[in-house]
Each structure stands twice: as C-alpha cells, then as structure tokens.
C-alpha cells in the first residue's frame, strides 16, 4: 500500500496557490493526486472540500491584484443578497492590472475609491452602494428594479443619505421601488417604471 500523502493543516482549510503549497513543502506534482482539486490557474483546494461559491471566490481572490475587488452580482452575493455569484465571477480592477477576462471570470477596469471597497465574508468587495449603482446602470429596467428592491428590503441601503449622488437613471429606479408598496411588479407599476425611464 502506498504512503498516504501528508496534508499540511494550513492547506486543508480552503483555496491556496502553488506558491502557498511550495512554502509548505509540496510542489505541482504533489497536487496532481486524488487528495487535491485544481480550482484555477495555480490554485488548488483539498478534494474533500465542497466546491461552494465561497470556495470558488476564495480561489479567485488569491490572484487579485492590489486594489481589486469583487463587484456586480458577485459582490451582491457577498453582501448577503440572493443572487448567483459565480456565473460569472465579476471583478473590478484598477487599470492597468495583470488580470483579464476569461471563461468564468469577467474583469472590468475602473477606478475604485478606498471607501468603495469593503470586506465581506473575508473577501474584498465593492461596498453595497457602489455594487447596486454599478448593477443598476448596466441592467435592464426590470432587473435593476429587482436588485434595488432586494437591497432596500434587506436593509442594505438607506436611500435618504446617498440617493442624491447617483446618476438620474439609477435614482429613478430606486425611487420607483420605494414608491411601490409591494414587491410584485404588476402591469401598473411596470408601466410607471417604463414611463419614468424615458425621462432619465
């Protein structure tokens, strides 16, 4: 019977890079065995760990350049909203940065202020305000209203303090959500949203 490979405790808790493995006495060939799972370029985890969204994000975070943060739906999930965080994983990075879009990963190059990056579930993410603003600008009317509604009803945002600083289109979305007394986007509210969007 072959010798069971030793598993360093530091590598058994989550995602790690090849450089991390080498610091604990393992090399690339050690990580090709059944005890390990490759999560991405030079990124691995113990095979018995469930491949959860958080594990995937931990793996992606190991390759983030300085100043980068998870954004979009990925950041929304890290803040606790019920959205899909990894289809694809979304990042915002400063330009230039040595990381680019590839399968399963979308990279947007935009400046982030220091107050726009927070840590959620141990990972860097755009703050709730920046997250919702970015999503509302790029999503369709119905999708933008849905995500704003979710954040407001979850108590993640207080529009009285930040709404005046947002672009007109985003202000219309959020104001319409607050105007509604129900989460059900019936025809009447949908018509009002479509009409308001024409003026933003």
Keyword list:
200 residues, alpha+beta, 3 domains, 3-stranded antiparallel sheet, 3-stranded mixed sheet, 8 helices, 16% strand
Structure in words:
The protein is 36% helix and 16% strand. The chain is an alpha+beta fold and 200 residues long. It has 3 domains: 9-51, no CATH class; 64-126, no CATH class; 131-197, no CATH class. Strands 1-3-2 form a 3-stranded antiparallel β-sheet. The protein has a 3-stranded mixed β-sheet with strand order 4-5-6. The longest helix has 13 residues, at 141-153. The protein is elongated, with a radius of gyration of 21 Å. The termini are far apart. The model is unreliable at 179-183 and 185-189 (pLDDT under 50).
Structural class: alpha+beta
Count of beta strands: 8
What's the average pLDDT? 80
The largest sheet, given as strand count, sense and whether it forms a barrel, is: 3 strands, antiparallel
**Total of DSSP H or I helical runs spanning 4+ residues:** 8
Percent in helix: 25-40%
